[in-house]
Amino acid sequence: MKFTSLILITAMVVTFVDAKPPHIVFILADDYGFHDIGYHNHIAKTPNLDILAANGTKLENYYVQPICTPTRSQLMSGRYQIHTGLQHGIIWPPQPHCLPLTDPTLADKLKEAGYSTHAVGKWHLGMYKKACWPTRRGFDSYFGTVTNSFGYLTGSEDYYSHKRGCGMPDFPTCKHWYGLDLYDNEQSTWDYQKEYSTFLFVNKSKTIITSHDKSKPLFLYLPFQAVHSPLQVPQKYKDLYPNITDKARQTYLGMVSCMDEGIGNITQHLTDEGLWNETLIIFSTDNGGQILDGGNNWPLRGWKGSLWEGGTHGAGFVTGGALPQKRRGTINQELIHVSDWFPTIVYGVAGWNLNGTSLDGFNQWPAISDGQPSLRQELVHNIDPLFAPARLSGYKWKAPSVFNSSIRAAIRVGDWKLITGNPGNGSWISPPEDGTPSVHPHEPTSKHLWLFNIKEDPNEYFDLSDKRTDKVKELFDRLSYYYKGAVPVSYPGGDPNCNPALHNNTWTNWE
């Protein structure tokens, strides 16, 4: 693969044609830090992403969830995790659990609208029975991984062998399980044992684009494995960063540049196939960068897994030939959340109905395409009654019937954000390459409530919970309201029948 010029692409001027919905390519990066894209940090070599974003609209008030499964679930369902039972953690490979089957997915609705629907990459929304798989959730085809946190379908998977372990911390039975997690539709495939996953997913995406029936609109969902750990990338991409002495950071940035190259090749291929003028591209991370694996979210506070801005304030933009000309080269500061993509894409972009859905997301196409105000006035980051109470350890305890400040939660109302319970590590971690000292706050271990004005204090330096008790009460009441309407958390124990040794050494469905 090689870096691709986007000069031809960026010079094109087209008009959106209402009579025919555009092709949609949704690119989801994994564990991609806020500070790890070139237009936020010049050290990161992402020329293709930078050009695409510069000729689109950058979403600078855009939010995702702190970890993988919750973001993907809200993208595919348009519903908060408090309404799908996915409030707590990810879906681990041995858990008999998946995104609830009762509601249509984004792909289901686009298929209704006449789209060809294809997914390439990491699923991570459950796989214990075939009804949970992408090919049964609205996608015409699927190539990638079905598991969760330590692989594609699962989560943290080897980029070359496409094998992974179990990793579920509270199911020690699976400690030594190991198997293949790579599927072509519903068949496991051992044919790509030495092919780096970023290259593999890009090539599969290009094949889909080439073979697409151009009389139909295309929906291509591309959730990369990159740039999730393990830190693996061909040497030439690490060589792009000879002055980065931190080895994890150097490898991570190499993975970033490799992904960027692949995205450039896909966009060039859309042009070569005559689809660019009618294509809308959406780029997003799934959560904040993982500091322990080379990612960075500077100057935001916290990182992956936390309810601080570093865990939830995501990098994202919208671009492509189908984006109205007047919105190219703009910065969008409207409040937008990952759950908004469902109605935005289905209703706003594809012009299809939302029948059969019950959504927490809003149609943000007017905000994106016309610069209108966001329809979103508040945002529930999460309410997790199974997470350990503030500063206490252990997963399993009885959830209170009434919301209290020991419960891990966060909500945004207007410019104000309230955090309760244990939000995760709240350090400000500077990138190793710039030499700025990191800051690790020393707060009382009993503290379990914070209030910030995010517009005035986007990096969460100034806790106003003692000064603005009126706002604390207002947002606490909203959290209580949502807590009362939340469905019970679904977080089943591991099932030994998932063991890959029982399934030809593959991770697959077992029910």
From TrEMBL:
Residues 1-19 form the signal peptide. Residues 22-346 form the Sulfatase N-terminal domain. It holds the Pfam family Sulfatase. PROSITE patterns: SULFATASE_2. Its cofactor is Ca(2+). One of its GO terms (molecular function) is sulfuric ester hydrolase activity. PANTHER family: ARYLSULFATASE, ARYLSULFATASE B. Belongs to the sulfatase family. This is Arylsulfatase B.
